[in-house]
């Protein structure tokens, strides 16, 4: 019958208010995620907020502020495992980072509500919604800007086509030309293209490029008698 000693009307009302606040605020964040059809939508964000609030509230009721703080630290680290589940890698692209970050923020909302910091929970919710909505046009505009090869962090590759008879000489020539232009090679791969053609792909250690310099290197590489075609390309690092 020990449970009878834990029934206190004011404490129960306090827990109800904390959980209700977490539920409402988590729902607001989840609605925005659901509207954009993200993998972690309405129910997930709501449950994360309510769960965080419940754990913190339980810790607070059992052992006071010190235990609530300890529970919050576990919530912060534990939610990382849940967030990792929504992150997916597709080739060189990584998806789900924003959704994982939103789940982390939903846990913060719930933790604040569970600690009876209701105003703070509302403020966190407002900032999360602002980050996911008001910043979208800014991100869209920045992504449409031309890529600055000289200042942006890039994955830079030089590709050259040759045949098996000239592979060794062509490979050595590519490395030498890049090193002479102060673009050291981090890795180099050879890929069969069929019809006795091979493609040499040199990945540069540098993450910035001066287009004119690399164009000159490509021109020198292409003049080698064993190389049929050469070009370079870059892609933004994620």
Number of strands: 6
Strand order of the largest sheet: 4-5-3-6
Helix coverage percent: 55-70%
Number of domains: 2
Give the percentage of residues in beta strands: 15-25%
**How would you sum up the global shape?**
elongated
Largest sheet report: 4 strands, antiparallel
Low-confidence segments, ≥5 residues, pLDDT <50? Answer: none
Function: Virulence factor required for growth in low Mg(2+) medium and for intramacrophage survival. May be involved in regulating membrane potential by activating Na(+)/K(+)-ATPase.
Family: Belongs to the MgtC/SapB family.
Keywords: Cell inner membrane, Cell membrane, Membrane, Transmembrane, Transmembrane helix
Protein name: Protein MgtC
Features:
single chain, 238 residues, alpha+beta, Alpha-Beta Plaits, 2 domains, 8 helices, 6 strands, 58% helix, 18% strand, membrane, MgtC_SapB_SrpB_YhiD_N
Word description of this protein:
The protein is an alpha+beta fold. It folds into 2 domains: about 1-145, no CATH class; about 155-235, ACT domain (Alpha-Beta Plaits). The protein has helices spanning about 10-35, 40-65, 65-85, 95-115, 120-135, 135-145, 165-180, 210-220, and strands at about 90, 95, 155-160, 185-195, 195-205, 225-235. The strands form 2 sheets. The protein has a 4-stranded antiparallel beta sheet, covered by helices on one side. It has a two-stranded antiparallel ribbon with strand order 1-2. α1 packs antiparallel against α2, α1 (about 10-35) packs parallel to α5 and α7 (about 165-180) packs antiparallel against α8 (about 210-220). The radius of gyration is 28 Å and the shape is elongated. It starts with 8 loop residues before the first helix and ends with a strand.
